Amino acid sequence: MLTQERYQSILSTIDERGAVTVSELAEMLGASESTIRRDLTALDETGRLRKVFGGATSIKQVGSVFEDNFSTKEVLMSEEKTQIAMYCATLINDSDFVFIDAGTTTARLIDFIDNSKATYVTNGIIHARKLIQKGFNAYIIGGKLKPATEAVVGAEAIANLRNLNFSKAFMGTNGIDLEAGYTTPDIEEAMMKEAAVKASYMAFVMADRTKFRRVFPVTFSQLRTCCIITDALPDKSYATETVIKEVMT
Predict the structure, then answer these.
(1) Structural domains present in the chain
(2) Most buried residue among 17, 72, 73, 229 by CB atoms closer than 10 A?
(3) What is the pLDDT of residue 90?
(4) CB 198: neighbour CB atoms within 10 A?
(5) Segments of the chain assigned E as strands
(6) For residue 133, what is the enclosing H or E element?
């Protein structure tokens, strides 16, 4: 069996069962366990499954309703977030009216923005602080504060977006899936994200490769409504659904 055929068989089995052991795959595919381990390592490195001790699990999973706090998430995939942020900063023009969503990757974006002529709106407390420290023309959405992510959410926040028309929005997400679209654990945060995308002429989802094939409880938008800026695309089938830019390939 060719390597690519083994890969496909492994992925199909894991998608169907959720998890599988090295010994099960070796018996099923007629390959040595060392070969299977190498296959799992390769597939894990491209983000197509998650390698664990003795086997592998599906990377497509329904995430928890609980969410790590900002400081915990900030250190994850740090270099990838930096590269994504650097690219997105180049997309901002002088006349833009920009929405910047709360989140760690979008916060990294502000570090690289050098356009002081654009106008910025955010629902992130940390983001607002960064924007004013750089002397930018910035506004923060009012509403309910979510402590874990330091995001402003809720009915009042959504109402504050209704009369705004953004030229560009830079959004964060917890999961990206072909069927479920862009997802997040929190209903109120999802509603805020949905409103921001709808209020924008162009919306960019900033997401590293670990966000793909993950599904969280609430969908805030379908794939086609946003462009995706990522470090590397683990599954090329996503490129048939929307515009995707890989910044580290």
Answers:
(1) 3-57 (1.10.10.10), 70-246 (3.40.50.1360)
(2) 229
(3) 98
(4) 15
(5) 19-21, 50-52, 55-57, 97-100, 119-122, 137-140, 144-146, 151-153, 166-171, 175-177, 181-184, 200-206, 218-221, 227-230, 244-246
(6) helix 125-133
Number of Cβ within a 10 Å radius of residue 77: 19
Report yes or no: 201 and 166 within 8 Å, Cβ to Cβ.
Answer: yes
CA 21 to chain centre: 29
Tens of pLDDT, residues 106-157: 999 999 999 999 999 999 999 999 999 999 999 999 999 988 888 999 999 9
**Matching residue, tokens 């366990």:** 33
Which pairing describes strands 227-230 and 244-246: parallel, antiparallel, or unpaired?
Answer: parallel
DSSP 204: E
Spatial distance between the Cα atoms of 136 and 126, rounded to a whole number of angstroms: 14
Structure tokens at 116: 């002081």
